[in-house]
Amino acid sequence: MSSIKNAWIALGTSLFVLLSLGYTYLVIAAPERSLPLIHTQGSIAANEQQRWIFVGDIHGMFKEFTELMAEVKAEDDNTHVVLLGDFTSKGPQSRAVVDYIREHQNTTHCILGNHEVNVMFAYLNPAGLEHGLSNGRTHWKPLDFSSESYIPPRGQVNLMHKRVVRELGEERVEWIAAHCPAELTIEFGPQTLIAVHAGLDPDLSPGDVPRVKDITTMKYMLPKDHSKTSKFKFKHSRRWYKLWDKQHAPKDTTVLYGHDSSNGLTLRKRTKGLDSSCVSGGQLSALEVVYRDGKYQEFLHQVECQKMI
């Protein structure tokens, strides 16, 4: 039973006792919401016989998502699917997408995008979001990740995320928090595949934990100081993935990500950007990665999307 339901039961029991003792003037406050600890990182040791399918931003476009899953034959027991974040929000069927992940959780893996982070934050802070995080309020309940407590950047959380909370309901939001990390590392033969939503610093060493803000929101990074990142271009910044072309970037690692719809499909040697603007009438893209005859092979799959925004 969920924490909120338990809290209401406890509250009801307390009210019964107080009323039976003659206390009739009571101020009732809703129980405080909570979420499970959210894992910043997850890892999987893959079988070289498996197929791995990485899917760009779905944004609640369930019809197109199921078409794509049929095209890649995702029901095959040897196939694993990784959703690269922003599988909810903007589109019409966020709940259906989450239910699909839950029903196929043995072979379908989810990464947190900035919109899932915003939805969870809206769930924890149901009051005071009428004008987003820029409304002057200073006391917000943060999201507890395994590596840090996190509040999304100012202005990112809005009424749309509150509507998605209502669409999903408490149980699904809690499930996302418990089952979707912000980064997933897949050891696949001699290659390491890292799935994130937004991007990854090429200078991170094995065992280093990335900042939640970077892996869920960034598009730009300062080449001489990788601690300086932003979703928006700033002076002397470059797209983070261009820094993976440097000599010292790990050669046995491939980063797969979404988030950057303005750039569209961006398939480079060490980084694979798969957000191709499905919710805006583009395509929903998936990259299939297999290991055969001692080498990796990649196959691109796409379906056309109906424009929703």
UniProtKB/TrEMBL annotation:
Give the GO biological process terms.
Answer: polyphosphate catabolic process
The Calcineurin-like phosphoesterase domain sits at 53-263
Pfam families, per the entry: Metallophos
GO CC annotations? cytoplasm
**Could you give a GO molecular-function term held by this entry?**
phosphatase activity
* Name this polypeptide is given: LAQU0S05e05314g1_1
Q: Which organism is it from?
A: Lachancea quebecensis
Organism classification:
Eukaryota, Fungi, Dikarya, Ascomycota, Saccharomycotina
